[in-house]
User: What shape does this take?
Amino acid sequence: MLACADGLTNGEVAEELAVTRQTVGKWRSRFVADRLEGLSDEPRPGAPRKITDDLVERVVTTTLESTPRGATHWSSRGLAKKVGLSHMTVARIWSAFGLQPHRSEKFKLSPDPLLVEKVRDIVGLYLAPPSNALVLCLDEKTQIQALDRTQPLLPMLPGQAERRTHDYRRHGTISLFAALNTATGTVITSTRRRHRSKELRAFLDQIEAEVPPDLEVHLVMDNLSTHKAPTVKRWFAQHPRFHVHFTPTYGSWINQVERWFGLLEQRQIKRGSHRSVVELVRAINEFVTVSNENAQPFTWVKTADQILGSIARFAQRTMRAYS
Assistant: This one.
């Protein structure tokens, strides 16, 4: 209508707005007849709405505020039977309101009284590491099992996924000590039969030998009792160039080596088949070699304020849910 008011013809308006001349003529005629009211959409034909707002509200509130008898959550068919709708209607209402009763996620809020200080300390190391220093994220992946499937693995074929038996035979376990260099993405590792402060101290000796003596070393570690054992404390006292930064309680997610452990689990351990601990160690060492040859550091993008803000918002939502 504004283009027509500028004196353009129907054909010129249609070409400018990429519509047909009939469309321009229809709306021009409606404006001439009814002015601005003619530009409103007219009622469309079809069956009247059957699902009322009250019924939609009942579906949502029932989903959120109750559970079915003998179950922990509603299914679309179970709720449909209760409210007298089809299960597809219930599913559409759930989709419109973002409800997914079949899904469940885990969470754990850290009760550490020094949560804010520890998050700022560790994130500061990641985003602005000190000069003439090395930042290492140290942790252990314990009880890695050497598992062998009870029947041979069936390899992947066109149209068929790789298949393996669900059951397995155990052939022992090992613990993997790892220290991730946040600047380069390389790792220092050691496999041990047991996981004690004695083994941790031996791994610290290995780090001491491999890191150039002119560098300060900042270690990011969790609150495992092994990390705070007297023999480990004495070791740190004897090596003043090592500075320990503990993660918040239940806050191992802030330790970057956990992401590297996830890659190890996903790419080597989870689908591997090992007839002995020796085979498992050989497979892990091969993964470490390839990882170091193609090392890339993890890019930390969240600032401490963003992380703490996210934790605060989640805590507030959790409090409202229980209030």
Remarks:
- Residues 53-96 form one domain.
- Residues 304-322 form the longest helix (19 residues).
- The chain is about 45% helix and 15% strand.
